[in-house]
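Project standup — Tuesday

K.O.: blocked on the structure for the chain from last sprint. Re-posting the sequence here as requested.
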Amino acid sequence: MNIKVCGITQLKQLQQLDGMDIDFAGLIFFKGSPRYVGNTLSARDVKALDADIRKVGVFVDASVDEIMRVVDDYALDIVQLHGDESPAQCEELSEQIEVIKVFSIPDDKKDIDEIVADYDDVCDYYLFDTSVNGVKGGTGKKFDWKKLSKSKIEKPFFLSGGIEPDDAVKLKGIKHPDFYGVDINSLFEKEPGIKDMAKILQFKLALKK
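H.V.: unblocked you, prediction finished:
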């Protein structure tokens, strides 16, 4: 199972994650986020980094041109779309770079397959986060993970939303052929944008064993 650590704001921590063989690092380019990297991480430094970790740029309702400028500036490997991006925009981007489309799952009976249907052919990965009272993601809350086992998702997907260090056993118990990875963030931090590397390592070891 792959691990994506989102909300990185320091070059040193990006290098540390690479040294720990973490699979993906998320860099947030939404100015409304407390983990916005525009003022903390130099594009030149990130682009020059010799690392195997895959760099994911996180965007919210940005234009294709803006996203691709940032992709080039930071040498990003993947883009993650966390807003209300249309299938057409996802398709345009996916012709140039791999795309993760985020879906915030509400606590109602709406079917996950119904939620993703329009995006099946226009992105490379899904990411499922939690929607609480209309707030999309960043809530630190879990949705009902049983919804995943009932779905017919046929695309690699990440699971996000309220994942904490002690969740490794529960995560390993999720049985779905396309469960590709977990996305962790706020519950592995000392403060917004500053990760607790000991917690991440502990989680990785528990998840991989």
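K.O.: great, moving the ticket to review. The longest helix spans residues 197-208. The mean pLDDT is 92.
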